[in-house]
Design a protein that fits this description.
InterPro entries: Beta_helix, GH141_ins, PbH1, Pectin_lyas_fold, Pectin_lyase_fold/virulence
Distance between the termini: 53 Å
Low-confidence stretches: 1-36
Largest sheet: 28 strands, parallel
Structural class: mainly beta
Keywords: Signal
Radius of gyration: 25 Å
Organism: Streptomyces brasiliensis
Oligomer: single chain
Protein name: Right-handed parallel beta-helix repeat-containing protein
């Protein structure tokens, strides 16, 4: 019978330990901190089992496993196994090897927390990556359409906005066709129809002859680096109407920036028209008829085409900051396939656009709009959550998104690849409204090919208005924009700025800035804009490879390190930067630099190359062609 739920007792020690860990790591020492939550020697964990062949009516034993993660979760809830005073050791939920299709997000809230210093661990029992939680289902019932294109009826009840063939993302049919699966170019460029139209955010103009008047654009979108010559953010916006005589398209929603800037046009391509479907690996979705058209890379009878069913696989969310979900670990799980959205813009266009009163309304422009606050794993109102040895791939949006009130999140020893948005995004509160996001440890992670659907502002690790964090021993690779970023806003005063005491060390960043400008592979924005600039963020032992953008990119150059608009209060020590199109390091005179290869007297012998990037015992094979 269900039991009355008792809110778990708060556990505080781990945040203190994480802060101590950051200090030790900043000093280069090996982390060796006693575990305040160490289990007694006679502690015997409760073991529950889940198997694709199980039943949620079973007992959850090894011989009679549950079928779903929710079945194990509900068993713990219903029997009060995690109630304070009753939880004498950890509870392990052991997922046996196999696939676990998900059609609804798995929710874990404060009722599912560990208590009394013990944890609830959802783990891949047969080894890292063996239990695969999949937010997609196969597309079947294909019939041949023409020219190697096949059609399937997928209905109109659950639209989706990305697609996969045999674990590889398909490209939404587009014009012009992309150069390769690893590149976003080539583009068209918007033009200025009339001088007074330079500031428009919704009207897209072309030169005569650039658009084919026979195109059917009834389901089409424009993907735009708005802002003219600026290449900072991309918008994905449906086309509302098309005036062929005026060479003008009207977009359904405003883009972040105007489509012209200083008489310079914005790069863009058009997507999702059957008229654009001419390349293997491209698809077109007719949302009105519920018909999917696809040109497979292989034989349609030999490939598996997957359509997403959810945007989030795991949602860990306490009821509010005073009722946090805590003491939960996801270990060794493979999380694959999640969806994107029907349209996308980063943040509101102007300060105050959220309609909510804030001390710094300009921060509306810096934070994701509510409709886009999700990841494959979404975490909010949490404390002491650990994601370890995860393999997160083929996502529609961010892989891990920690939003607002979170303390002591750990993401470690994990492979994140083929990510639609950011790899790991930690977004704190609005400035001046409570320092509720801090003490996170992001270490020994390999993050590659991220920002695939949102190339503008994409970052392998992005921290927004959060402090006392450590980002370390990681390899971050292949992005249109950033490798690592830390951002607030320039107008935020020191007392309301929570991006303090962060440590970034032993990082390797490769292939950043592939399609954007006025950026750095390591990027900081608005973190300390008022004197005195106390040195309280630290960067050390970082190697940045070449930062070379696509030739079509019209913005100012690329940099290794870019300290933008108040990027002050940092120390840099033992840093290498490869080739860039601008400076290796751009900053105000408000940071300390010791032993960087853009300065005279650089000593490469001080670089600890063997510790930079992921460790030798990283639990997954590195992506093909990569060496550490």
């Amino acid at each position: 019978m269900p039991t009355t739920q008792v809110r778990p007792v708060r556990r505080k020690p781990r945040l203190v330990l994480l802060l101590a860990a950051g200090v030790l790591l900043a000093g280069g020492a090996m982390l060796d901190v006693p575990d305040a939550n160490a289990k007694p020697a006679d502690c015997e964990a409760t073991e529950l089992f889940v198997s694709p062949d199980g039943s949620d009516k079973a007992k959850g034993t090894e011989s009679e496993p549950f079928k779903t993660i929710e079945g194990a979760r509900d068993h713990i809830r219903d029997h009060g196994l995690n109630r304070p005073g009753r939880m004498h050791c950890d509870i392990n939920v052991n997922l046996r090897a196999g696939d676990y299709p998900v059609t609804r997000t798995i929710d874990l809230d404060d009722r599912d927390s560990g208590s009394d210093g013990h944890r609830i661990v959802y783990r891949s029992y047969d080894g890292p990556g063996k239990a695969r939680v999949m937010g997609a289902k196969p597309v079947t019932g294909w019939t041949e359409y023409k020219d190697g294109i096949y059609r399937a009826d997928v209905g109109t009840d659950q639209p989706f906005y990305t697609l996969f063939e045999d674990g590889k993302r398909a490209t939404t049919a587009r014009y012009p066709n992309r150069k390769s699966d690893d590149e976003w170019a080539p583009y068209l460029t918007s033009v200025l129809k009339e001088p007074e139209k330079e500031a428009v955010h919704q009207w897209l103009y072309s030169n005569p002859g650039e658009w084919d008047p026979t195109w059917d654009l009834s389901n089409a979108q424009a993907v735009i680096w708005s802002g003219g010559s600026w290449s900072w953010f991309t918008d994905t916006v449906p086309i509302q109407s098309w005036n062929q005589a005026k060479n003008q398209m009207t977009l359904k929603y405003w883009t972040r920036y105007a489509l012209m800037n200083s008489r310079s046009g914005s790069r863009y391509f058009l997507q999702n028209s059957l008229d654009f479907l001419d390349q293997p690996g491209e698809y077109y979705m007719d949302y009105k008829k519920g018909e999917l058209y696809y040109k497979p890379r292989g034989d349609i009878d030999d490939v598996t085409v997957m359509r997403p069913t959810v945007t989030t696989l795991f949602n860990l969310a306490g009821a509010d900051p005073d009722r946090r979900v805590e003491g939960i670990t996801l270990d060794g799980l493979a999380l694959q396939y999640t969806d994107f959205v029907d349209w996308y813009r980063y943040g509101w266009i102007s300060g105050g656009d959220s309609g909510e009163p804030h001390k710094y309304p300009e921060y509306d422009r810096q934070i994701e709009m509510p409709r886009n606050r999700f990841g494959t794993v979404t975490v909010t109102n949490s404390e002491d959550i650990t994601l370890s040895r995860m393999h997160i791939s083929d996502t529609g949006y961010h892989a891990v998104y920690a939003l607002f009130a979170n303390k002591g999140l750990t993401v470690r020893d994990s492979l994140l690849e083929n990510i639609g948005g950011d790899g790991i995004k930690v977004e704190g509160p609005y400035p001046g409204e409570g320092n509720t996001s801090n003490g996170h440890l992001l270490t020994n992670n390999y993050i590659t090919h991220y920002g695939e659907l949102v190339p503008g502002d994409a970052s392998g690790v992005e921290l927004l208005n959060t402090g006392h964090n450590t980002v370390s021993h990681s390899h971050i690779k292949h992005s249109a924009r950033y490798g690592v970023s830390l951002e607030v806003r320039p107008e935020v005063t020191a007392e309301d700025n929570y991006a303090r005491d962060n440590t970034f060390e032993y990082l390797r960043i490769d292939e950043a800035g592939l399609d954007s400008g006025d950026m750095g592979a390591f990027y900081v924005y608005g973190v300390s804009n008022f004197e005195p600039h106390t040195i309280d963020n630290r960067v050390r032992q970082v190697v940045i490879g070449d930062v070379i953008p696509d030739a079509s990119m019209p913005d100012s150059g690329t940099r290794g390190v870019h300290m933008d608009a108040g990027g002050c209060g940092f120390s840099f020590e033992d840093i290498e930067v490869g080739k860039t199109t601008d400076q290796s390091y751009q900053s105000y005179q408000c940071n300390d630099v010791k032993n960087a290869n853009w300065e005279n007297g650089y000593d490469a012998s001080k670089m600890e190359y063997d510790k930079i990037g992921v460790s030798g015992d990283f639990p997954y094979p590195l992506p093909e062609g990569d060496t550490q």
